[in-house]
Amino acid sequence: MPTHPYHHGDLRRTLLEAAAASIEANGVEALSLRQLARDAGVSHAAPSRHFRDKQALLDALAEDGFNRLATSLNEASQGVAATPAAARRRFEDLGRGYVAFALAQPTLLSLMFGLKHAPDARAELLAAGHESMALTMRVIVAAQEIGAIGPGDPQHIALVAFATFHGVATLTSGGLLDGVPADELVATASELFWRGLQPQMAVAPDLAPGT
Hints:
Elements (H helix, E strand, L loop, with lengths): L10 H16 L6 H8 L13 H23 L7 H21 L1 H11 L6 H23 L8 H20 L8 H15 L15
């Protein structure tokens, strides 16, 4: 395939998509800017217009992954939580959206969180990484506002929810669920988690003997 000094389309997007596919197929270590340039039909120097080196490409790939994850979760949890049942569905849809993303791109997900928690993580990457948690917190707060679930720190609730669904995705991708479908486990986990968040009913004190 002949190469050209530049790309007439969106070369940055082309490289990010090709890089995402490459790491899932061959791992992060095998990722090569030169190979991506050859596959895109551009000169080996062309990617440097967008990524100065492989690490810059990985940082951008992680940031783009978080942005796509947030978009996916936002689409999965759309709708107004006007009733407890609707709030419950939004929560489960959020979990399904996360697990679906994680199972489709497990290597990318590992890269995303690995770079997000690196000591020298870029501010843009951190901001993108926080958006998914912020979205989960908004779902929790909306449910609390209509009384679908009880009070509590939305950040802590969202963090436990993340740990729950991330665990489902990790165990599923590792083949450690003895064949239980991920969707089935997400539904069960959502039900149990949501049940634990239900408002506590006030219990009247026992009447004293003889009254």
